[in-house]
Structures are given as structure tokens and as C-alpha cells.
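Quick one, probably user error.
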């Protein structure tokens, strides 16, 4: 299929503080590669996955279904943005999340920062949204990584919202998560609620209750043009809502997804932390 005519608008990208990653910046494997699950990939297939916004860790833990769905894509990574967050569980009061710098984040993980008195637990997560060209479509993607797991394990929400004149191709939203515990790595695509709307796609899933070292959740979908006018920019909001108290699976379905992020419905407010979207914007001529 013919690739959309893409023209990176550097000023627009800088204006929204987005880091644009052009094809070739990533360092693909020079030879064939076998991941954790024994899936053998050629160097070209590995590069294709990087160009679709998959991280090296995601590729290492990629299941066969996800690999087969993406290995032949005609892809180019056009832009991405990463946010860093710290979740604080105080001795008194409701847990909450704050955004920190990349340097602060790594200092926290390394134990170089003293926690304030009254803090009983902290968790750390990063979120990366990205836009790639994918044949005749564009790929919108969001990755949430827990580097230190939260103490509360309930039903979390991950999504990608947009405000462009596009539509989710065939209303298909892909989701999976990987985690590692005392028994090694595990991969799952289980979810409780998946939405494909005119404003984005999202999924509810349950955090495993076992003793986890880390977890990475991924959601993505392709979009097609939904207007006869020329589109000059594409912009997405990667968002994630973490349950800071136990919630019921049936109640979690009462939420929305849009370019403003995840909107919590009646009965959910106060049960989830609130973080800033990871916004990615690129210039196009589509």
C-alpha cells in the first residue's frame, strides 16, 4: 500500500516539547535475533518493530501473535514523547502521582533521594506515546512501564486519545502486557473493557497481585483519514489511570477517552491518580 506523504514540521514538534525520532536513529540488531519466547527475527524485522514504536524490552518479551501482526509493516517512527512519574503513598491521606524529570526519576530509582517523612511507599512509572507511519495508515501507540510496582493492585486504565480528523482503522485496538516475577517473564492480552471511539482507544486491565519486579502495558491502533481536507498535523495523548484503592471491575467501565485523556465517570473519582498526558505531535501533509 502507498505510504502517506509525510513532511515533518520541526517547529511544531519543538513547540510542544516533543522529541522527534527519525528512522535510523535507533540502532537495530545487525543480525538475526531470538527473543525470550524463542521467536527468531531478522534484522529487518527487528528494525520494523522499532519503527512501530516498540521498545527493545517489548521486542525481547514479544509474543508470537504480536510479532506476526507487525513483522511485515512498512513502518517509520516519526515522533515520541516520554513522561516520568512518582506515585506517593503517604501515611495519612490519599495516594497521588507527580511528574518528575528524567534525571530525578533515575535518582529515585538509584536510591539517591531521601523520601520525606510520612511516606510509606513510592512507586515509579514512565509513559511513552508515539506516532509511526504504517503503510497507508498511521500508528498511535502508548506504553506504560512500572519500574517499581505500586502497593495497590486493582483495575488500571490505559489509552490513546486524539483530536484529529481520523478514525481507528476497522475499530481494532491492540493491547497486551508483560511482567516478571519470581517465576520469570509472562505475557498476557487479558482485559476487562476495551473501547474504540471517535476520540481514541482504551483498555481496562487488572494488575497481577503477585510479587512483581516490573510491568509494561502497551496499547496501539492504526488510524485512517476521515476527511476530504488535507491534514497538516497529527497529535495524540497517551494516558494512564492507576487505581490507588480497590475498585469493582464492572464500575471501571464508566470512563471515557479523548485528546484530554482518560475521563473518570461517576463513582471513580478519588479512586485513581491523575497524571499529565504524554503528548506527541508531528507535522504531515496527508
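Nope, works fine. Designed sequence:
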Amino acid at each position: 500500500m502507498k505510504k502517506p506523504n509525510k513532511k515533518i514540521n520541526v517547529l511544531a514538534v519543538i513547540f510542544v516539547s516533543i522529541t522527534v525520532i527519525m528512522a535510523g536513529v535507533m540502532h537495530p540488531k545487525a543480525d538475526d535475533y531470538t527473543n525470550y519466547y524463542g521467536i527468531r527475527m531478522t534484522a529487518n524485522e527487528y528494525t520494523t518493530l522499532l519503527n512501530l514504536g516498540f521498545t527493545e524490552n517489548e521486542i525481547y518479551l514479544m509474543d508470537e501473535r504480536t510479532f506476526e501482526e507487525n513483522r511485515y509493516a512498512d513502518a517509520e517512527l516519526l515522533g515520541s514523547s516520554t513522561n516520568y512519574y512518582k506515585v506517593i503513598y503517604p501515611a495519612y491521606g490519599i495516594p497521588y502521582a507527580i511528574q518528575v524529570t528524567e534525571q530525578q526519576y533515575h535518582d529515585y530509582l538509584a536510591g539517591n533521594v531521601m523520601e520525606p517523612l510520612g511516606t510509606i511507599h513510592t512507586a515509579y512509572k514512565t509513559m511513552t506515546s508515539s506516532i509511526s507511519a504504517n503503510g497507508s495508515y498511521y500508528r498511535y501507540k502508548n506504553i506504560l512501564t512500572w519500574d517499581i510496582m505500586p502497593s495497590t493492585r486493582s483495575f488500571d486504565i490505559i489509552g490513546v486519545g486524539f483530536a484529529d480528523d481520523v478514525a481507528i482503522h476497522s475499530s481494532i485496538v491492540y493491547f497486551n502486557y508483560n511482567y516478571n516475577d519470581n517465576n520469570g517473564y509472562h505475557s498476557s492480552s487479558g482485559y476487562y473493557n476495551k473501547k474504540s471511539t471517535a476520540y481514541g482507544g482504551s483498555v481496562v486491565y487488572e494488575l497481577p497481585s503477585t510479587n512483581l519486579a516490573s510491568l509494561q502495558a502497551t496499547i496501539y491502533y492504526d488510524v485512517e483519514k476521515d476527511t476530504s481536507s488535507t491534514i497538516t498535523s497529527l497529535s495524540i495523548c497517551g494516558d494512564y489511570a492507576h487505581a490507588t484503592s480497590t475498585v469493582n471491575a464492572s464500575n471501571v467501565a464508566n470512563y471515557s477517552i479523548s485528546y484530554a485523556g482518560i475521563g473518570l465517570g461517576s463513582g471513580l473519582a478519588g479512586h485513581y491518580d491523575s497524571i499529565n498526558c504524554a503528548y506527541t505531535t508531528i507535522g504531515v501533509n496527508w
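Residues 153 and 208 are 7 Å apart (CA to CA).
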